[in-house]
Amino acid sequence: MNINKIDLNLLIYLDVLLRECNVTRSANQLNITQPAMSNGLKRLRDLLSDPLLVRTSEGMKPTEKALRLQPIVRKVLLELEEALQPEADFNESISTRVFRIMASDYAASTVIPRLLNRLREFAPGITLDIMTPSDVTFHDVEAGKIDMAINRFEELPQSFHQKSVWLDTFVCMMSSNNPVKDNFDIDAYLQAQHIWVSKTGFGVGVGMDPNDVQKLGWVDEALQALDHKRSIRVFTRSYHTAMHLALEQDLIATLPKKVAMVNKKNPDLVILEPPFDIPQIELKMIWSPLLHHDASHIWFRRQVIDVANELKAQTQ
């Protein structure tokens, strides 16, 4: 096949079709009509002598040839997007750009308030659009629809750029009236009632099972290694909710130190070191290679790291 016959738009169509596996959704994403998308798929099938997408009982599925082409097409388009990015300087003082950030509750409770204060001082026209992990997908980040995701990630697509924001330890937060605070050892911890809080990655959350330690996370895995198990009374995905519930006399919230320090001046709460070792967690920011060389994005990434370094210095 002569490569001169390939229309660049067809590569864009193919990239979206293989991600969505749906003509209607692909058309909506590219802001074209469904007949135009169907015509594009027909041209691709004729050009490549392959159906590319076939209908199954589980919906449209890519063929073997389509699966081989997908990473190649994605790489070509990403590199082209990077090469065509404008190199104009970015003036934050007059910019009215909107930065869309997927921030976990943990990140939103710690990084975002300081970031907003910095923008208020140096870039008053910039707007933040904060989304939750349930609002976006990895595809949204990869396509540049989301400027940045700040969260804890176990696995990431290789195409993403990433940077560590910080490492964090755990602390225990409880009411100043909680009787266990005066002799806080492992026995006291295990006899108490606990608040579980966590939400990582992307996608809609699912209900929790107190007996499924593998899904409970760092704290409960650390306890299991000691042949211990805590009594969880409340499950929440919000750190602010967890800290509010910690005001109850009989509840303990075990949570990352940097988010706990948000309430360090509250006289009704005390913050103590946990009576057992819990592995550190890492907060990362990730972004699309499409945005990596964009001047405004480079500036914005620097602001995130600067405010993170300020917070780290204050919570050592």
Automatic annotation (TrEMBL):
Source taxon at top rank: Bacteria
Stored Pfam families: HTH_1, LysR_substrate
CDD domains: PBP2_Nitroaromatics_like
GO molecular function, one term: DNA-binding transcription factor activity
InterPro entries assigned: LysR-type_TF, LysR_HTH_N, LysR_subst-bd, WH-like_DNA-bd_sf, WH_DNA-bd_sf, YidZ_PBP2
Alphabetical list of Gene3D superfamilies matching this protein: Periplasmic binding protein-like II, Winged helix-like DNA-binding domain superfamily/Winged helix DNA-binding domain
Record's keyword terms, sorted: DNA-binding, Transcription, Transcription regulation
Residues annotated as domain HTH lysR-type: 6-63
Protease found in the keyword field: no
Sequence similarity: Belongs to the LysR transcriptional regulatory family.
UniProt-recorded name of the protein: LysR family transcriptional regulator
Organism: Marinomonas rhizomae
